[in-house]
Amino acid sequence: MGAITTPPSMVPPRGLTPDGRLKSGRLAGLSMNRAIWVLSWPVMLESFLNSLVGLTDTALAARLEDGVAATDAIAGASYIMWFIGLIFMALGIGATALIARSVGKGRRAVANAVLGQTVTLGMVVGMLTALFIVFASRPVAGWLNMSPPAQDAFNQYMVVIAMGVPAATMLFALIACARGAGDSIRPLYAMMVRNAVNIGVSWALSGAEVMGVSGPMDLGVTGIAIGTVAGDVAGAAVVLSMAVRGTWGIRLIGRRLSPHWHTMRRIVRLGIPNFLETFGMWVGNFCVILMVGWIGLEPGSAGLLGTHMVAIRIESLSFLPGFAMGMAASTLAGQYLGAGSPEHAARAIRRCAVVAAGVMYAFGLVFLYAPEWATRLLSDQQVHLDHVPLLLMVCGFIQVPFGLSIVTRGAMRGAGDVKVVMAITWACTYAIRLPLAYLISGVDLPLPEWLGGGVLMNPSPLDGGLVGLWVGLCLEHVIRCVLFLARLAQGGWSRVKV
Asked: E-strand spans in 346-473?
């Protein structure tokens, strides 16, 4: 009697159990739904804690004596800090993808090497970025057309922030390594410490009044910046101690800190396309905030820069679930592909996308039906109450496509499909996002002196102002969602070599 053989289609991938569970790493033995839950809820909480730093800075600034100017300063600084975050993200994307693949294949030594090289790169990149910020902050304040008080506050804030950039780089690079290893829970401790220190120190040094009690010192936005830096240093110390102890299943070993050019090249090769993608998006959004500044030059439009940022801070709470699901999809896509199963990777992405769309739909209802209530959570400044609710209503309509876009983009990054993600992001930003924002807002462009000065009149018959600008931004999100879903359906992301 012949031996019974298993058809090839029934043989499980090399890195999976017969019932489709990962064999190695911290996710080993978990069902797909359980793995999504284990990865996503800590990331969502961590993302909220990360957003809480910016929310704290904005809320405290709005409660200072010159709250409108201080909020404008924090708004401009937020875009510079976003640029800093691009560098964190680029480093983290490479580390997450390589560690996830290594863990999925059971190659722990390779994962340890990537961890060590990530720390080395982080130290160098953090110091170079800090120097760049010190020299760039003053001209940026002029470009944003801030009032003189807002410019002074902006410059003070950014000089202090620059001192904490190396610590912040270390914090987020190591958190990315932990995610690649499948541990999204323990980094939460570092983020909790970071926020506790930030809130306490920022309130104590800024002099802002919270629930009727003012901080004991009155350093204004400088005190807020010192609190942010103190939080970054404290969080970095916590997460670094975890890496040294091997808390995530991978360990930071001293000899792995010495430059290993092959490993560094692999990290950089994945990180640079991601940086170019997000840098292109940042430049596009910096052009958007320049438009906001130009709208603010019109009579009766003071405080629109801060208004724009207050609305973004509130809206950012809505895409935390999408970001969490995107990070879960990123890790699972990498590990399932490393285990040899593109089918499981695609299934995980679809499940994460459905959850993200459902939760963000609920946020959209809040923005549509209770926008003023949401605004008052962050600011009672009249200029913000006049404009922010309308902006929240606009973005309430696109929460579902926004969520789908976040998840699919995150998953493709985790799979290493960073070049296609970059191409879609750049095309949408410059061919769709900026033209729509410009034409629907009706903003006129002031020309620099080297082009003869004056104003370039907007040819559009529309004059939507700040609300029109947000309509253009939201329409672009819908188009971007369609393109990412098309790439997901095409399947090329699952065949990328990393």
From this structure: 445-446, 455-456
Cα distances (angstroms) measured from residue 184 to each of 181, 362, 472? 9, 25, 35
**Residue 446 bridge partners (DSSP):** 455
Q: How far does CA 194 lie from the centroid of its chain? A: 17
Domain that holds residue 202: 27-495
DSSP states of 5-46: ---GGGSPPTTB-TTS-B-SSTTTT--HHHHHHHHHHHHHHH
Instruction: Please tell me what DSSP assigns to residue 107.
Output: -
Distance between start and end Cα atoms, the chain: 46
- Going by C-alpha positions, the residue among 235, 286, 277 that lies closest to residue 50 is 235
* Residue 248 dihedral angles phi and psi, to the nearest 5°: -90, 5
Is residue 397 included in any domain, yes or no? yes
For the chain, what is the domain count?
A: 1
Cα(470)–Cα(289) distance, rounded to whole angstroms?
11
- Compute the Cα dihedral for 72, 215, 48, 235 and give only its sign: positive
Q: What share of the chain is helix, strand, coil (3-state, %, to 5)?
A: 75, 0, 20
- Which residue type does 142 have? G
pLDDT tens, position by position, 360-407: 999 999 999 999 999 988 888 888 898 999 999 999 999 999 999 999
Question: Within a 10 A sphere around the Cβ of 132, how many other Cβ atoms?
Answer: 16
Q: 106-151 pLDDT, tens per residue?
A: 778 888 888 888 888 888 888 998 898 888 888 887 777 777 888 8
User: Would you say residue 20 lies in a domain?
Assistant: no
**Tokens for 66?**
């010159």
Determine if the pTM surpasses 0.85: no
Q: Is residue 1 part of a domain?
A: no
What backbone torsions phi and psi does residue 22 show, to the nearest 5 degrees? -65, 145
The pair phi, psi for residue 446, each rounded to 5°, is -70, 135
pLDDT in tens, 14-51: 677 777 777 776 677 788 888 888 888 877 887 788 78
**The total number of residues written for the chain in this structure:** 498
| 6 is a domain residue | no
